[in-house]
Amino acid sequence: MKRSISKLASQASALLLFFSLLHVWPVIYYILLRYLVGVTAVLLIVKADEMKKQRWTWVWIGVAILFNPIVPLYLPATIQAVMSLTCGLLFALSARIFRL
Questions:
Q1: Looking at residue 76, what DSSP letter applies?
Q2: Which domain holds residue 9?
Q3: How many independent structural domains does the chain possess?
Q4: Tens of pLDDT along the chain (100 residues)?
Q5: Which secondary-structure segment (H or E) carries 81?
Q6: Cβ-contact 51, 60 below 8 angstroms
């Protein structure tokens, strides 16, 4: 069974975003999470553009901006938790949406 990098990255991002809701991790976890989610979002931007799914391209651009590791957005904990849950669900569903 061959797995694509996009599928593995989106599954890993979903799992780590769900784990981030526990709030027991050191700061380095959240820094590395931003890098992984940001890179995965860019991969899915390319996939969505290849498949001519313009709305999904814009969704992943939004995710890439929110999890930008270069200029991070620091949001209140409740908003960050909702954002992590929502983005985790998006990454989990991306395998079906894009047939990865």
A1: -
A2: 5-98
A3: 1
A4: 456 888 889 999 999 999 999 988 899 999 999 999 999 999 999 999 998 989 999 999 999 999 999 998 888 989 999 999 999 999 999 878 777 6
A5: helix 77-98
A6: no
